[in-house]
Amino acid sequence: MSRVIAGIYEIQKQIGSGGGGIVYLGRHLRLEKQVVLKADKRTLDTKPEALRREVDMLKGLSHRYIPQVYDFVQEDGVVYTVMDFIDGESFDKFLYRGTCFSQPQIIKWACQLLEALDYLHSRPPYGILHGDIKPANIMLRPDGDICLIDYNIALALGENGAVKAGFSRGYASPEHYGLDEQNQTAAVRLMNRKTLQNRATETLKVSETTQTLQSKVPQTEMDVRDLLPSDGSSKGSPRAVMLDARSDIYGLGATLYHLLSGHRPAQKAQEVKPLAANVCSPEVSAIIQKAMEPDPDMRFQSAEEMLNAFLLLHRRDRRIVRHRKRIAFSTVLLTVGFLIGGVFSFTGLKQLEQRQSALTLAEYSADSLAAGDVPAAVDRAMQAIPVNRSIFEAPVTAEAQKALTDALGVYDLSDGFKSLKTVELPSAPLKIVTSPKGLYFAAVYAYEVMIYDLEDQKKIVTLPMQKSALSDVFFLTETKILYAGIDGVTAYDLETQSILWAGETATTLAVSGNRAIAAAINRDKDYVIIYRVSDGTKIGQRILGERYMSSAANDLFADPGGVIFSLNEEGSMLAVSFSNGGLILFNLENPDEDMIVYDESDYVRFEGGFCGQYFAFAANKSDESTFGLVDIDEAACLNEYTSRDNFLLSADRRGIYLSDSNLLVRFEPDTLKETELAYTDNVNISAFSVGTEYILVATDNNCFSFYDSGANLMSTENCGQNCDFVALAGKYAVVGNRNDPCLRLLELKEHSGTQLLSYDSRYPHDEARVSKDGRTAMLFSYLGFRIYDMEEKLLAEIELPDAEQIYDQQFVKNVKDSWLEVTWYNGTKRCYSAADGTLLSEASGEEPSKDLYEEFYTQRYRIESALHEAPKVYSLETDRLAAILEEDAYLTYVTQVGDYIITEYISTAGTRYGLLLNDNLEVLAYLPRLCDVYEGMLVFDYESGNLRQCRLYSLGELITLGETIK
């Protein structure tokens, strides 16, 4: 079987079939990527607008434990859903083979499934119901994580418009079977109370009880009329069903029941017997029993509630509660025997469960931090730390402390843009715009614009817009906006939250550089209206001569971009690109002086704008891109050149910015000089934003990077998906993906208060060390070294002889002095003073071994480090192997600081970092750019030419900091 669907997807073979449709393995022909196509068996009998809403919502889903939906295509009356191909095996196959899993494993997978359900249930506007949770719909990936497949991906598809969920006996909740199973009054809970009431008026009288709406519980709407007898009456047994988040909770409970016991639970919820103590712990059994309560009101009311029950399992253990009560009311009558039997044996029993919970929470914290949600990362890490710290609680795990340290970022002293938090929109963004000073940003989605205060980190207002993805918004000032409002072009004051004026209906807007003039055009019109921004007076209109701007066939959800609609500084010239490839500069004051750049062409995408007397543009097609520069005053094209790579261009009163492949430059129109702003090595730039001092660049490998004004790379982050939107202004930045409603906010952080000294950043060196007396710092490499005093005065600069023959360098500190010890391959060893660089000694010896073998000692351990082996740690007491340290980095130094051990490394990429270890060699903190430990202080070396320092933070201090963020 091999056929092509929609000219894009090649169906290779059928890999599954069910009541809802047939599942095929396919291939994306252009991307050469394996995909899964699910062909829906049901008839497409849904309004296109409703279908498009569902399509947009589902394509916007992005979560670690669910497959990504890429596309919906229709061919020959069949709707295909295109999604990720998940490598792995479904749990029904494991159960068929009799595979057994441990309780900790199942708890881990339960938490992952609940994360996925919480994500689906909370999708705006009403959530997405899975509807058929069972082992067959859960895949175990090769990495040990799960993926919840076959969620209800066609909510708008159904027979006669009705939506029905999956049905698997034993896993389906009682409400799946209809209320006869429960022998109780019919109750229909719908997502929208108004919808229920309207339908009820037409078809049947519903009691107050049946009209109750569970707020905050996502629900799948069922047409009541489809559930009544064919004559539409309400006589006889009601067949109405209620499906909401709690129905999925039941299915998950039943699935966990099967995985733990090896047996499918009884079909009738009333007949399900609790899991015995020999199957799982009583606490886990209680969670599953609550999830499978016949009455939905008795179950967990949300996936988040059930997730917290698992995460805090050890805190809610009945034995812990009992012991806490005993402690609270204990008296001197308690005997030593009771304490030993009732306390210490119990404490040992709970260690494994608490550690598993902490490991899971630490992993969730790391995931939140990677997504840019710092508050969530801190919150998860704080949950991993025992609350009461009594003898019945397990000690704080190293993983929990490291998660909290990472989330707080206390050891990252570099200047730059750091993750602040995430903001979730009701749906995926269509546009993101920042205010001039960067105090606010505007996010356009379907079909509103949200204004967000970055300083206070709160939403200011949401305003309804035209129902088109083309709808624009501009900041006129820091607190005034112009947007394509639902009733027409609208100027709005954010301070007074009032409309200043409104004009005619329009989608696409432009504002002059001086913010005095605005131009507006509606998507299906061939004329432009010109407004005076101050009061909204219509001061002109320009007919485009039956030319139309490019737009999608259905612009409700698709904004193809790649169009020019731009005013110059004074608002006297308007540049417009058209669907026929034309590009014209309209003179709004004198039509006879219009400038036609292209009357028509085969270019399909345009970008451009005005900078002073110049108009710059980029025109792209499949195999060629052109950059052009027009002098408006001279009515002449000054420069034009082509490339096989796509150009990205932005132009405003500040300058012209052009991206070609992996290079972003500022283009000087007067001199044609180019100034490099960013260079991205072997990846292409996909979007950029230029601020006053910094540049934000997105690349086609799902990363975004910040550069300073000297084109120096400051930081790079991978966000796991395309960064379609990047916006930078002032000290804030916003990054977003057109299929994900979550926006990542970043804030510029500076750490000048931790400065130890500054040096010339152009001086190349491998290491930096502070002398024992703290008076000087040495920067050194095999080429030579520099010495600075703490007043940042350069004291010495020495070139080392025969640099290519140097075997090793070590900065040595003893009780009174410190020096650089350099060893050459011929056995020569020289020592240079850290105070002034003078040669202290020179000696000849045997040629050193070429394996760079070293030994380090702490109070309890001996550490062996060889060039091509991972460092090994041996106990000084027993001489037994205690641990193996980092395998993918070279160990350079080991320092004992109190009860801590600090190890320093050079990664395979040449980056220096350190690890803070406890006395059991568990990692407590990652120390990026660590270069030295001086008098208990950590010293960090940054390529920006700064040595910075900070002290070690105790666990108590970290918890206090975490509480301020929570």
From TrEMBL:
Its EC number is 2.7.11.1. Keywords: ATP-binding, Kinase, Membrane, Nucleotide-binding, Transferase, Transmembrane, Transmembrane helix. GO terms for molecular function: ATP binding; protein serine/threonine kinase activity. The chain crosses the membrane at residues 327-349. It holds the Pfam family Pkinase. ATP binds at residue 38. Residues 9-311 form the Protein kinase domain. Belongs to the protein kinase superfamily. NEK Ser/Thr protein kinase family. NIMA subfamily. PANTHER family: SERINE/THREONINE-PROTEIN KINASE NEK (PTHR43671), SERINE_THREONINE-PROTEIN KINASE NEK2 (PTHR43671:SF13). This is non-specific serine/threonine protein kinase.
